[in-house]
TrEMBL record, chain A:
Keywords, comma-separated and alphabetical: ATP-binding, Nucleotide-binding, Transport
Residue ranges annotated for the ABC transporter domain, each copy included: 2-226
Organism whose genome encodes this protein: Fulvivirga imtechensis AK7
Pfam families to which the protein is assigned, alphabetical: ABC_tran
Superkingdom of source: Bacteria
Recorded GO MF terms: ATP binding; ATP hydrolysis activity
Coiled-coil portions: none
Protein name per UniProt: Copper-transport ATP-binding protein NosF
From TrEMBL, chain B:
Transmembrane segments: 20-36, 42-67, 88-112, 124-146, 158-181, 201-223, 230-252
Keywords: Membrane, Transmembrane, Transmembrane helix
Entry keyword annotation includes Transmembrane: yes
Hydrolase is among the record's keywords: no
Taxonomic path: Bacteria, Pseudomonadati, Bacteroidota, Cytophagia, Cytophagales
Coiled-coil boundaries: none
Protein name: Nitrous oxide reductase maturation transmembrane protein NosY
Length: 245, 260
């Protein structure tokens, strides 16, 4: 369970998170959505301890993550951009992350699924962006972590890899994982997400299922629902709507 | 930390810059040795190269490496590992790989020349020591600057200015102030000024070791008079170590509070 309490964060004058409260309980896929600059990545990065909050707290399975690092053993993270030490080979990077985690990790099935076998011995600087992202996917999923955090996971992937990734995410959900996902691709959300958390101007504006959102906005397509929220938000007062806690 | 160190080190040893850095020192040292045919002269010429070049290379590689490995650091930050270990590991990985190129580049020509059996061996070792200390210091300073500055151009510029200031401008300003305030007793002032610049400090360290009073210069002479050769050597070494420890600790502290 991830519990976020009154999370505050400013970058200089830019007040990104204005007291976010969020509780993610049980398994499933939770999509964190919102317009650019609404604080999606910031929330994810505070959970990972990469961004240090100004106020509020985050608990993972009841333990405050502040000043703690071992909790990241239970998190797999797939970042937006994949960059590695240029002169290491794919095999070595996988070994390195295993070394750091001190766990065995099972990369072989993932390597085969994403067709990375021919690249295992090539240096990372010689790989294309999409191939690097596949390496990242392997690093993210190979430890059987309880929590999986995906930040724009499909960037740079070809359609085949994208389908494989979607299957993988589905399987992980079936295995009882808690998956947090941010993306701008609404089809992905419609296909995958069990619940939507919609951020607007540093606060949670909406939380509920896809259906809840459609009912609220009266639009069948998620993309349109969101556009409607954003447009309406310009006129109405900004209260937090929680359809389902 | 050791794990991060190990992989950064392997990564860097395979980069072609390590080889270029190694070849540069090997060729320069060999040329100076065999052309002058005089070990102590070669050591003095090399000293002048080292106290300028080791800081410059340390600064440039430090800043470049930090900015290049930023996304990788983000990947590491998401792993169960302390922040301190990541940054110290990378710092040591870079410094040690530079050091290895430097020591191997300098060492091989001197070993072939027969330094191991020569009475100049200890002088040569001090030369290597100062090069090493300077590399540690300036990589730490470069990391500190890069961690503090998100903007690459700014970080790069600032790091180069720091190097330029310490390697070139400082001496000029120092001499100028000695000249302006020549009516006052300046012993303690110049002692303080020397300690405040790691490059000057290294120069004095080598000079005290070589015991060449003609080359000591004003500050060296003051150092010598004040502390005597051996105490002066120990004190300047201690200050040089402080120049490594303080920037490294500051770098880790800044990194600990930083958002990525």
């Amino acid at each position: 369970m991830i519990t976020i309490n009154k999370l505050e964060k400013s970058f200089n004058k830019n007040h990104v998170l204005k007291g976010v409260d969020l509780e993610v309980r049980g398994s499933g896929i939770f999509a964190i959505l919102g317009p650019n600059g609404s604080g999606k990545t910031t929330i994810i990065k505070t959970i990972l301890g990469m961004v240090i909050p100004d106020g509020g707290s985050i608990e993972l399975d009841g333990k405050n993550i502040k000043g703690n690092w071992s909790y990241r053993n239970s998190i797999g993270y797939l970042p937006q951009i994949a960059h590695f030490p240029e002169n290491l080979t794919v095999k070595e990077v996988i070994k390195m992350v295993k070394d750091i985690r001190g766990k065995r990790g099972d990369e072989q099935p993932l390597v085969e699924r994403f067709g990375l076998q021919p690249f295992m011995s090539s240096r990372l600087r010689n790989l294309s962006g999409g191939t690097r992202q596949k390496v990242n996917i392997v690093l993210c999923f190979m430890f059987d972590s309880k929590y999986i955090i995906l930040d724009e996971p499909t960037a740079g992937l070809d359609p085949v890899a994208m389908i494989t990734l979607k299957e993988l995410i589905h399987e992980e959900k079936k295995n009882g994982k808690t998956i947090l996902l941010t993306t701008h691709i609404m089809e992905l959300v419609e296909e995958l997400a069990d619940e939507i958390v919609f951020l607007l101007e540093g606060k949670i504006f909406f939380r509920g299922t896809l259906q809840d959102m459609q009912e609220m906005t009266g639009e069948a397509k998620l993309e349109r629902s969101i556009a409607r929220i954003l447009l309406r938000n310009n006129h109405e007062s900004k209260e937090v709507i929680t359809v389902k806690a | 930390m050791i794990k991060i160190f190990k992989y950064s080190f392997f990564d860097l040893m395979r980069s072609r810059w390590s080889l270029i850095y190694f070849l540069f020192f090997a060729i320069t040292a060999a040329a100076l040795l065999y052309l002058s045919n005089d070990v102590s002269r070669a050591i003095i010429s090399l000293m002048n190269i080292i106290i300028i070049l080791c800081p410059l290379i340390g600064t440039m590689f430090g800043v470049m490496y930090y900015y290049n490995s930023r996304e990788f650091v983000e990947l590491l930050l998401a792993q169960p590992i302390k922040r301190r270990s990541i940054f110290l590991g990378q710092y040591l990985g870079l410094t040690v790989s530079l050091l290895l190129s430097f020591v191997a580049g300098m060492g091989l020509p001197f070993i072939f020349y027969g330094i191991l059996a020569s009475p100049e061996l200890s002088n040569f070792l001090v030369l290597l020591l100062t090069g090493g200390l300077l590399t540690f210091t300036f990589v730490a300073l470069a990391f500190l600057i890069a961690v503090k500055n998100e903007n690459k151009i700014k970080g790069f510029g600032f790091a180069i200015v720091v190097w330029l200031f310490m390697a070139v401008l400082y001496d000029g300003l120092f001499l100028l102030s000695l000249f302006i305030f020549e009516d006052y007793p300046l012993d303690k002032f110049s002692l303080a000024m020397t300690v405040l610049n790691p490059i000057d400090l290294s120069r004095i360290l080598i000079m005290l070791q070589l015991d060449i009073s003609a080359l000591l210069g004003y500050t060296g002479a003051v150092f010598n008079k004040f502390f005597g050769t051996s105490l002066g050597f120990i004190i300047s070494l201690a200050c040089a170590l402080l120049w490594i420890v303080v920037p490294t600790i500051s770098m880790v502290r800044v990194a600990r509070r930083k958002d990525f």
